């Protein structure tokens, strides 16, 4: 069984996708940080770095779990924007729901108001799509 799981992970994660993975996490962290700043001001980042990071963690954790399972870092995803962008979209929707779900628990502050669910999902979809398009446009 362990061998089957390892084989599944090997098919879902390709080393050629590493630059895209780093970019995905940076883009998500930047977008989420933008939301934190918009709601709390830029001083909040230094005044409460733990609060800032605890805002990012549920969503980055959701992404870290879902993206490999969906194949966002598979060999196919590393080949073209045409493959990479739909995989990011299919990954972000459940990842955002995991993030919002975690925020609805006592572990994280923030709650899960419907407008927030919509905004974080749409902003993440657009941000990841634009980033992945740029990644392939620059890479050539």
Q: What is the number of E strands?
A: 0
Helix content: over 70%
Give the averaged pLDDT, no decimals. 94
Number of separate domains = 1
Description:
- The chain has 140 residues and is mostly helical.
- The chain has one domain.
- 79% of the residues lie in helices and 0% in strands.
- It contains six helices and no strands.
Chart the SSEs and their pairings:
Blueprint: H1 2-12, H2 18-40, H3 43-47, H4 49-70, H5 81-103, H6 114-139
Quick summary of this structure?
This protein has 140 residues and is mainly α. The chain is built from 6 helices and no strands.
Structure keywords:
6 helices; 79% helix; 140 residues; mainly alpha; 0% strand
């Amino acid at each position: 069984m362990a061998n089957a799981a390892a084989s599944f992970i090997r098919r879902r994660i390709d080393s050629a996708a590493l630059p895209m993975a780093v970019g995905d996490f940076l883009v998500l962290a930047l977008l989420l940080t933008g939301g934190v700043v918009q709601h709390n001001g830029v001083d909040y980042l230094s005044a409460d770095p733990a609060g800032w990071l605890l805002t990012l963690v549920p969503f980055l954790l959701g992404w870290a779990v879902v993206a490999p399972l969906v194949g966002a870092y598979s060999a196919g995803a590393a080949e073209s924007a045409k493959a990479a962008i739909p995989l990011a979209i299919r990954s972000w929707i459940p990842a955002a729901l995991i993030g919002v779900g975690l925020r609805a628990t006592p572990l994280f502050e923030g709650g899960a108001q419907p407008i927030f669910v919509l905004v974080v999902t749409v902003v993440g979809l657009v941000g990841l799509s634009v980033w992945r398009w740029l990644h392939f446009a620059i890479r050539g």
